[in-house]
Each structure stands twice: as structure tokens, then as C-alpha cells.
Amino acid sequence: MSQSTGLRAAWPTLAIMVGASVWGFVWYPLRMLAAFGLTGTAASAATSAAGCLFVLVLRWRSLATVRWHWVLPMLGLAAGVTNVGFVWGAIHGEVMRVLLLFYLTPAWTALFAHFILRERLTWAGGALAALSLLGAVLMLWSPQLGVPLPANAAEWAGLIGGMGFAMSNVLVVKTSRVLPHMKPEMRTAVIFAGATLFGALTSCIEPMAAIKAGEDFARVVLLVLALGIVLGSNNMLVQYGLARVPANRASIIMLFEIVVTALSSWLFAGETPGPREWAGGACIVLASLLSSWLHRAQDARKHAAHASADASVMTHADASRTDEADDSRDDAGNGRGRCRGEGGSRGDKDGDNSGDDSGDGGADNGGGNGGHHSGGSGPGPFRARNGARAMV
Question: What is the pTM of this model?
């Protein structure tokens, strides 16, 4: 029983790791498409269209949850910039350098969240943004240029794609706030639709030779459809994990993509990062880890504050209930005291009468004093004292 429970608890984490692994390998089939003659922008549009169609067919019932809001086209545009930047950069550049530039998200997210989500930019957030930018400076510094700029168009594409990725993450949060009833898979469909449109527009300015009809064309179609299904399924798989794993922990797990990309680029492309790439990458990864830790600490403080407030409310409620119970007992005691006091008074009178009677009888027998004491110690005064106690 405990093993099955532990396995169910591990599924969300495993889902995110599988998603990160797929993204770490996806550059390789994209280069295969480029080898067949499909450009990066066209590949972005084709695979995104296949992914969007797959999600809509699989989750068509969720279409009823979609409502118009200006944030949806903005989310689609940011996703299009993200996808085209990553795909084009991964095809034409060094995969590891492009991915590390893509992962400068702590810097861009802090800025975008400040202006779009109205989140306060703290000193800690600014320091993390500076640390990730320091990693980029270490990696991009060129003695010839004297400035830390991307060395080629592929690295620029990775950098701009990372900005789009940060913007899309912020807009996903914005979408969940302004359209809370919209299903997550519909956000996925909007992301794929935006990537399709943006990829199609940018493919118009990138020349592409005609793909030969026959076997190569069939392979391109099959590979595009397979990539669309894999990416659509992968996105929904990651959505499943993100819905069940704390966001800060999920951001750490997603860094597994960098590890997978480093291994796959070394195995399949023969790319070996140099000392500057390792140093810059370490700063970027460290910034992401610290960002996760910072958000986790902030969440813990918020939960502690809420728990303290709840405890204070519960204590106040318990005290109020205790006071009400005490008041009820006092009222009940007052009623009983009055009844017993009256009974005691009656007892005193009866006792006095009986004492007098006993005294009179005792006098006849020579025991009048004892008879009067016996009458004074009868049940009447005991009841009166109990009544007096209850009234206090």
C-alpha cells in the first residue's frame, strides 16, 4: 500500500523530468528536418500546427472554457517568439550556448513580472537577475569585441527566445488570473497556435529550397507529425506535473533539461563546452536554484502568517465560546441557588419549628438544650449555605 502511494506521489515529478528530457533532445530531430530542407522557421510553424491540432482533437470539449481577452494574443505572440528563437538557434548554433542564453529567464522574469503582474522587485530578485546576467557575460565575453554580446545570429535567437519564454511564463500566470475557468490544455493550444502563426510569418522572410517529392517529402511529413504529437503530449504531461508539484520545486526539476542537452549535444553533435561556458552556465543554473529557494522561503513565510492568523481567530473563537459557557453555567447556578436558598429558608423555618418542638419535648424530658441544638443543626442551614455558594 505504501509503495503504491509513493509511486503515485512520484508520478508528477517523473512527468516533469520526462518533459525536460524531451526538450533536451528535441533539437536533434529539428536538425534532421533542416537536413531534409525544412528551415527553422518553417519547422517551428509545421510542428506547432501539428501540436495544436493534436491538442484540439484530444481535448475538444475544453474549447467551451475559452473566453476572449487581450492577454491571449499576447501569450500567442510571446510563445511564437520563444519557439522560433529556440528552434532556429538550436539548428544553426551551438546547442549548449543557445540553451544557456535561452535560460536567462530569472533576469527577464523579474522585470516582466514587475510591470505586468505588479510584483515588487526586491533586492533579492535583483541580485538573482544580476547573477544570471553575470553568467551570460562570462560566457559571451569576446576579447576581440571587448563587449559581452552574442557571437552570431543563432545566439541572438536563443537570447531573444529566452526573453519570449520569460514573457510567456508571466502571461500564463496573467491568463490564469483573468481567465480562471479556462482549462490548462487550452492555454497549451493558444501557445501552439501563436507559435504556428509567428513561425509561418517569419518563414516568409527565410528562403527555403523546395523539398523533393517522394521519399524525403514523406519523411518530412511523418517527422513533423511525430514531433507535433510528441510535443503536444509532452506539454500536457508537464502541465499534469506542474499542477501537482510546487512551482519552486518544478523549476529545479526543469533544469534537468540543461543536463540532457549537454549530454545529447556531446554525443550527437560533438560539442564540448569550454571553461567559460561551464562558468557562465554555473552562474545561470545557480541563479535559477536560488530563485526557487527564494520563492519557497517566501511561500513558507506566507503560510506561516496565514497559520498564525487562523490560530488567532480560532483562539478568539474558543475564548468566546468559553465565556458563553461560563455565563450559561452562572445563570444556571443562579437559578439553582435561588431555588435552594428558598428551600433552605424553608428548611430553617421547619428546623426552627422542629427544634422548638423538640426543645419543648426535651424540656418535658429534661433535655431542652440538646433538643434546641439538634434543631439548629438540621438540614435547613446546610441547604442555605449551598445556595449561598451557588449564588457566588
Answer: 0.69
* Count of residues in the chain: 392
* Residues 68-97: tens digit of each pLDDT: 999 999 999 999 999 999 999 999 999 988
- Euclidean distance between CA atoms 49 and 201, whole angstroms: 13
How do residues 328-373 score in pLDDT, each as one tens digit? 655 555 554 444 444 444 444 444 444 444 444 443 444 443 333 3
Over range 379-388, report the average pLDDT.
Answer: 36
For residues 292 and 248, the answer to whether their CB atoms sit within 8 Å is yes
Tell me the three cell numbers of residue 213: 517529392
Confidence check: pLDDT of 257 > 50:
yes
Is residue 84 within 8 Å of residue 262, measured between CB atoms?
Answer: no
Q: Which residue do the cell numbers 517529392 mark?
A: 213
Cα gap 208→294, rounded to integer Å: 46
Cβ atoms 89, 102 nearer than 8 A: yes
**Quick one: how far is CA 33 from the chain centroid?**
36
- The three cell numbers locating residue 155: 545566439
Cβ atoms of 224 and 45 within 8 Å: the answer is no
- Please enumerate, as own/partner, the contacts of 134-137 that have beta carbons within 8 Å and a separation of 24 or more: 134/283, 135/100, 135/104, 135/279, 135/280, 135/281, 135/282, 135/283, 135/284, 135/286, 135/287, 136/100, 136/101, 136/104, 136/280, 136/284, 137/280
Q: How far apart are CA 215 and CA 222, in angstroms?
A: 11
Helices (H) and strands (E) in the chain, counts: 15, 0
